[in-house]
Amino acid sequence: MGTPRDSRTKQAEEIVDRLEEAYPDSTISLRYSNRLELLIAVILSAQCTDERVNKETKHLFEKYDGPEEYANAPEEELAEDLNSITYYNSKAGYIKDSCEIILEEHDGEVPDTMDELTELSGVGRKTANVVLQHGHDVVEGIVVDTHVQRLSRRLGLTEEEYPEPIEQELMELVPDGYWQQFTHLCIDHGRATCTARNPDCSDCVLADICPSEKGDSEIDLASGEPW
Ligand code: SF4
């Protein structure tokens, strides 16, 4: 078991420093070329890998251009165009409904506030945060996906279980200016080393400060269960 820094703020700073050094090019891995494509890619990425989303959006973004084309498409056809994505039927409905709202209430533009974004269909705080950060350069919060959720708990930054309270705690701890990057760093480390089922603690840059480190700790703080 590693020994965390003596406060959660210092622990968060140390984690950011080390992960930045380990992953200097860390950034969003979804592909898009405008705000609407970003919104659609993020809606599709819920419970689906970015890799699969990128594969599917390659042809989707060639076929549909702009909110009118999504709003006017027959829902079954749009769903078929997404059929390798998890929950593609629901997601086709979210995309179509969101594009209708964008046309009716926002002059065809993806909105730039948390309140307006979360009124779109299938858009929660996490999706809205990604669109604000990468589409509008507005950083209002911290995106808490499954990797951020798991790593924050394993590394002793929070004992909260659900994304929204975790986000609130992280906003107190992660240095200003790193809110956006924190997510990408956690995602890179979560994919490369601190994976859900079999983290490679023996080759981890955070091992000496991680209270879940498998060498001595018997408990995975992410799940609260024994390793
Ligand atoms: S890989 Fe192991 S040591 Fe590293 S952060 Fe994850 S649980 Fe902690």
UniProtKB/TrEMBL annotation:
What is this protein's name?
Answer: Endonuclease III
Q: State whether keyword Protease applies.
A: no
Q: What class of enzyme is it?
A: lyase
User: Matching InterPro entries, A to Z?
Assistant: DNA_glycosylase, Endonuclease3_FeS-loop_motif, HhH-GPD_domain, HhH_base_excis_C, HhH_motif, Nth
Example of a GO MF term: DNA binding
- Say what the protein does: DNA repair enzyme that has both DNA N-glycosylase activity and AP-lyase activity. The DNA N-glycosylase activity releases various damaged pyrimidines from DNA by cleaving the N-glycosidic bond, leaving an AP (apurinic/apyrimidinic) site. The AP-lyase activity cleaves the phosphodiester bond 3' to the AP site by a beta-elimination, leaving a 3'-terminal unsaturated sugar and a product with a terminal 5'-phosphate.
Origin: domain of life: Archaea
Report keywords, A-Z.
Answer: 4Fe-4S, DNA damage, DNA repair, DNA-binding, Endonuclease, Glycosidase, Hydrolase, Iron, Iron-sulfur, Lyase, Metal-binding, Nuclease
Which reactions does this protein catalyse?
2'-deoxyribonucleotide-(2'-deoxyribose 5'-phosphate)-2'-deoxyribonucleotide-DNA = a 3'-end 2'-deoxyribonucleotide-(2,3-dehydro-2,3-deoxyribose 5'-phosphate)-DNA + a 5'-end 5'-phospho-2'-deoxyribonucleoside-DNA + H(+); Hydrolyzes mismatched double-stranded DNA and polynucleotides, releasing free thymine
What PANTHER family is this protein classified in?
A/G-SPECIFIC ADENINE GLYCOSYLASE/ENDONUCLEASE III (PTHR10359), ENDONUCLEASE III (PTHR10359:SF18)
What the record notes about the co-factor is: Binds 1 [4Fe-4S] cluster.
Show the taxonomic lineage: Archaea, Methanobacteriati, Methanobacteriota, Stenosarchaea group, Halobacteria
Residues at which [4Fe-4S] cluster binds: 194, 201, 204, 210
Q: Which cofactor does it need?
A: [4Fe-4S] cluster
Enzyme Commission code: 4.2.99.18
